[in-house]
Amino acid sequence: MLDQFQAYINRYHLIAEGDKLILALSGGIDSMVLADMLQKAKVEFVAAHCNFHLRGAESDGDDWFVRKFAEKRGIQCFVKHFETEKYAAKYGISIEMAARDLRYAWFEQLRRQLGYDKIAVAHHADDQAETFFINLLRGAGIRGLKGMQPQNGVIIRPLLWASREQIRKYAVENHVVWREDHTNVESVYLRNRIRNQLLPVFDELQPGARQGLYKSLEHLASENELYRALLKEKLSNLVEVQGGVSVIARRDDEAIQNNTLDCHATLAMTKSEQLLFEWLRQYRFNTDQCHFIFEAMESGIGNKYYSPTHQLVIGRNELQLSEIKPIVDEEIAIQIGEEEIHLPLNLCFSKLDNSADFFIDKSPEVAQLDFDKIQFPLTLRHWQHGDRFHPLGMNGSKLLSDFFVDQKFTEWQKQNVWLLVSSNGDILWVVGYRIDERYKVTSETKTVFRCEMKR
After folding, report:
1. What are the tens digits of pLDDT across the range 265-279?
2. Which long-range contacts (CB under 8 A, 24 or more apart) does 250-256 make?
3. Engineered SS bond to 135: which of 140, 160, 294, 374, CB 3.0-4.6 Å?
4. 2-222, what's its fold?
């Protein structure tokens, strides 16, 4: 199995001579086997362990186990403690997603701090199968169905070729010890349900069913590379950059008159909604937005659509894409003689002292915030699924989608409401409706940041 391990590393050029790795070491069988193999392959690495504090004493037991293993093997070990549930609640995401975000952010921070080259994680072939079915159920395209890759940036997966059965066999034969996570047998999370309920049935369909799936995933990965290359070539012919604005032809009148199609043929003529999506997804437009844009291309001239970072305008003959710039920076903080910012909204900003003559303006078109609590620069964007804030008057947080229900928002209002967001991601103001409780003006406030929406 060590020969297969080395052959896989060589095939995908995962570890170059002299590379230094950070190994994500959980204490489970997969990462413990990977640690053993890396040592036997004489690869230089340190271990990084995350204690997410999700399983009480078991989490602390894993922490202790990994430290003792590293000490015995002479491996430098770094351990990080996380308040995972608080993080998930703050950002309105699942525990799984919170743990993923936290660990990869820390791994990268540690890699940069140490000046190391890559981060090794112990995903294996059965993880690939589970990921395939997760993405299939979510309606993923080829990008999602192809599964994880042997290398993604600085992340490498040297065990992606090996099955769970092969890993267990190696551990037993080489006396590798590990910690069992009891939650792996609980069918609470979707991945566990696929692992414990779906895949055993899949294996019963015919001999070698799972091996066939592994081969299909390899084919999908190769086909995705070809698709991406052709897509890049196609878009390079369609998209032009004019003064910082990306433009794609909406229609080509000359091509229509001559009954010919060239590289500037209209997206609508080719009915390529998928091509439109592939262009816009890199600018954080979602599937639904792309569908609305595609449907509006013929009749919605002048319509504007926004992602968190970009604005798209349907012109008479083209689609115009431009970046949304941050609208306020502390160095150019708005002075008392209100300066107007002309962006998607006409907003005026001012900075005031919380003096005796200051009063709270209760107009929904005005937001008054504690200046010293705000992290600049600020941006304007539309809402996204999972957005959460602390509505004025509430102690806890609330999903924006629930706030919209409470306010009896129409679908149009939901899609067109604006959010004023600080650089740390906090939603300061649902523009025209409610500010965030944490940023309200109090008796302790020294400086007031006033935002007013002009009609």
Report:
1. 444 434 578 888 888
2. 250/297, 250/314, 250/315, 250/316, 250/317, 250/318, 250/319, 251/317, 253/317
3. 140
4. Rossmann fold (3.40.50)
